[in-house]
Amino acid sequence: MTNLNTAVTWVDARDRLPRSGTPVAAAITGRYPADSVTESDAALGEEFWLVRPMYFTTLHWSEDGAEHRDCFVDSDGVVRLPYGLTSDETVTHWAELPTLPGGTTHMVLGKDVQTALQNVWGTHPLT
Question: If you ran DSSP here, which 8-state letter would residue 101 be given?
């Protein structure tokens, strides 16, 4: 059986950022809903701190044409900046994603998927 345990090493986003293009687990903090602020600037929404899969990039263009530098982007295209920069939701920490079980890579595509699964499970996967 493949050992499925892995250790996560969190990096403070104020200290260091990942390489551009790196997929990461990002610890995000903010307030939900983000736009729930009263005239007295007292936020009504609830604070959160959660982990989401994202990737880091040194340059990202949003659908609206806005340019973002040194940012984290999720699968929906939402851009979050490192903690301390101006953003409704910021990334406090990040960790490199673990490799696939039994391997040394983060991704297997195409015809190699079934072979990789067979190597991990030691049997033929359901098809």
Answer: T
CA 98 to chain centre: 12
Query: 42 φ, ψ to 5°?
Result: -85, 115
Beta bridge partners of 67: 61
CB count within 10 Å of CB 14 equals: 13
- For residues 19 and 24, what is the distance between their CA atoms, to the nearest angstrom? 10
Alpha carbon 29 to its chain's center: 13
Distance CA 103, CA 27 (A): 25
End-to-end CA distance of the chain: 21
Give tens-digit pLDDT for 68-95: 999 999 999 999 999 988 888 899 999 9
Going by DSSP bridges, is the β-strand pair 90-96/11-12 parallel, antiparallel, or unpaired?
A: antiparallel
Say what the pTM is. Answer: 0.75
Beta pairing class for 79-82 and 90-96: parallel
